Amino acid sequence: MLREAVARLAPPMDTVAAYHFGWIDAAGEPADGDGGKAVRPALAMLSAAAAGAPPETGIPGAVAVELVHNFSLLHDDLMDGDEQRRHRDTVWKVHGPAQAILVGDALFALANEVLLELGTVEAARAAARLTAATRKLIDGQAQDITFETRDRVTVAECLEMEGNKTGALLACAVSIGAVLGGADDRTAGALEAFGHHLGLAYQAVDDLLGIWGDPESTGKQTWSDLRQRKKSLPVAAALEAGGEAAKQLGELLATDAHLRVGSEVSGPGEQYGRLAAEHAAARETDPASDLMADFDEAEFALRASLIEQAGGREWTAQEARRQHQLALDALESVELPQEVRDQLAALAKFVIERRR
Amino acid sequence: MLREAVARLAPPMDTVAAYHFGWIDAAGEPADGDGGKAVRPALAMLSAAAAGAPPETGIPGAVAVELVHNFSLLHDDLMDGDEQRRHRDTVWKVHGPAQAILVGDALFALANEVLLELGTVEAARAAARLTAATRKLIDGQAQDITFETRDRVTVAECLEMEGNKTGALLACAVSIGAVLGGADDRTAGALEAFGHHLGLAYQAVDDLLGIWGDPESTGKQTWSDLRQRKKSLPVAAALEAGGEAAKQLGELLATDAHLRVGSEVSGPGEQYGRLAAEHAAARETDPASDLMADFDEAEFALRASLIEQAGGREWTAQEARRQHQLALDALESVELPQEVRDQLAALAKFVIERRR
């Protein structure tokens, strides 16, 4: 179903999208790439079953949510300058920034098309919810970008950003099938709450993997989030913990901030200038434009260990467990077929225990 | 209504959008900037009246269409490397490429929100049509980008691209109010046809202004489209006309193509590398990355005059008149309140005669 939807794209967008999803390689040859964890489509199908509807009722919702998720990956990888995703070069790196923007736009439009072409009242309600979730997703990315140019961010700000960037779409995924299946608001609301907390648990785990994850399994660089100066939960928690390590970390991050040329606004643009230039054929990357050029691995290792000493790593692991429990509590608050409940719980467990 | 919708955006996106619409200047001070011709909102309101509904029925459609139009301007200016729009620096130039991507995404999502929050069957139909039009808009931009890296494009390809890039959204604008007003398919279809032909007339005029327009009134650089190697109608028509001038022009454009480093795919990326780098603070633009760096004004003047000698200018003016007439014919094919018919015809006249 996802492939059928993507096949509607006009060339060369269909090829670029197929590369992004891992269906073909950079040369256009069929590939059995890692298309991601597909947690959201699985949730959308279960969501339909949760409403007592046949799982296939959730398919358009599953496809729409997966399309929106990948629209945001295409644009975020470009804005963040991420060069690798799922062990492969990102789309902007292979096909250029313009294609990353264009194909992202196309996937977003396609998501609405897949729902609205159903022409039912339920589909319109589902599309309205997906749109609301997408707006939050974009708010979250806006906050995330701003955070990178600040030398500190509170845990509260960080949780709000992650609730927008990750919680909203997971909440939509786990309720959209139910909405398409005609669920009442109480059921849809409980599923949404489950998804929201699951999203925060998911993101907390992501933040741990972003610093301490094994590049072999994550497919990202070591210290990936530190390289990008992401103010993720472990960093925010460490800074708020106080103590010597927190103080040292705060000073280091402040220095990073001063190392940077330009204002909050030109900040993302600079990194962008670097990555777009990198892509440009027959041009050498200008090292001066690489904010972290003068950093060696040891500097990242130091930051990581200071974050851990200040307790940022343990706090984030705790937060993941706490959000996981809140998600399970939300499930308990509503009547659901036992097997659906079990499968949702199993997915939540996977999210917490994943290493990638 | 548009301002209210945009005010829903979280900072800093609300500010960036306000700059784009010309409500504030780059410093954030209130400005009475040129917010564009607002042809589409006017059409959407008239469209409601065309269905015998009160014009305000068309407001959400007018806002949604204007949001989608501006989403595409934000992203296209970045992809095309346009530095000026409406006599002002474009958003990527002032606020950086990342904000141009992000705010474009937000305006697109907002467009769906404005329609779907109405929660009516008509609104869902309107949203479905807007989504279809947006997909064509994106197809058109994809074709436009590809054309820039080719040394020739047929008139047919060019018309198809312009039908997607300009015709589709105008067709949606002039029918969306009617759809919201519960118009029958025949009326909506006739209005859509009017909008489609009007869009092609509009684009033909745009292509003329893109080469021979007065920078004072267009707010674009001289030879703007030639600088970007756009294969617009005058160029395509000139190349197909044959004859000496066409031959010379073809050879010049072929040489341009060979001047360029990289493939079709890396093409946009390169220009992009240049523009993003330009934005990057504390960095000099790398002239080697400016594809047209070694061109002087005389070269553009030569191309423009060859296009005119080959008949590309006159053919395009003819095409504008032809599409204008087809638009008026579409209006005649359906019952409409006389004053609505008159106002639609007046708008069509304005589109043809505009100098900006």
TrEMBL record, chains A, B:
It comes from Streptomyces tardus. Keywords: Magnesium, Metal-binding, Transferase. Coiled coil: none annotated. SUPFAM superfamilies: Terpenoid synthases. This is Polyprenyl synthetase family protein. InterPro entries: Isoprenoid_synthase_dom_sf, Polyprenyl_synt, Polyprenyl_synt_CS. The keyword Metal-binding applies. The keyword Oxidoreductase does not apply. One of its GO terms (molecular function) is metal ion binding. It comes from the Bacteria. One of its GO terms (biological process) is isoprenoid biosynthetic process. Belongs to the FPP/GGPP synthase family. The lineage of its organism: Bacteria, Bacillati, Actinomycetota, Actinomycetes, Kitasatosporales. PANTHER family: (2E,6E)-FARNESYL DIPHOSPHATE SYNTHASE (PTHR12001:SF71), GERANYLGERANYL PYROPHOSPHATE SYNTHASE (PTHR12001). It holds the Pfam family polyprenyl_synt.
